[in-house]
Amino acid sequence: MGRERSDASRNRAKILDAAAGIVALHGVQGLSMAEVAAAAGVGVGTLYRRFGDRSGLAYALIDERERAFQSAFIEGPPPLGPGAEPALRIRAFLHALTDRTMAQLDLLLMAETSGTFARFGGAYDAYHAHLTMLVGRLRPELDAACVADALLAPLAAPLLAYRVRECGVGIERVRSALDALLDGILA
């Protein structure tokens, strides 16, 4: 893939700044392609060509924090990064993913519900591969891929939003439940 043209790069930065500003002021509900285009000083067509739709724009807003999170669990310091025992890494990963999801819950909720399988691919695949590898090291007799799905399921943005916002479940209770699930796997 070639380098991005400088004008395209500037437009992307303007668009993402405008979108982040709108989300900060009005929440994700206020994020419309027309308003973002107007705030960024670009045509709506440019926005649609670049991002596809609102969920594509949401993913672009999520991207920077996502890259930092993935870097932390792939090459950062232990226990999240390499160097700690698999059980400690899994627990650290699940706690960090809980925090990461809560930090951008509305954007993730929009992105993950844009289509039937919108949650899967990209970041999910990276999380899944990471957990599959760690579970496989820890408990080789288990179906590590299915266990990884089970560990990730409670952190789906729609479920987490429902539990936290509609049911009043505190985030510490979510972490405790993930710990209990992990303890069951380790037993």
Key features?
mainly alpha, Arc Repressor Mutant, subunit A, Tetracycline Repressor, domain 2, 10 helices, single chain, 2 domains, 73% helix, 187 residues
Query: In the CATH classification, which architecture of the largest domain applies?
Result: Orthogonal Bundle
Question: What ranges have pLDDT less than 50 throughout 5 or more consecutive residues?
Answer: none
Rg value: 18 Å
Strand content: under 5%
- The total count of helices amounts to 10
Count of structural domains: 2
For this structure, what is the CATH class of the largest domain? Mainly Alpha
- CATH fold category name of the largest domain: Tetracycline Repressor, domain 2
Number of strands: 0
Mean pLDDT comes to 91
- Describe the sheet with the most strands: none
Structural class: mainly alpha
Protein name: HTH tetR-type domain-containing protein
Domain HTH tetR-type: 9-69
DNA-binding region: 32-51
Keywords: DNA-binding
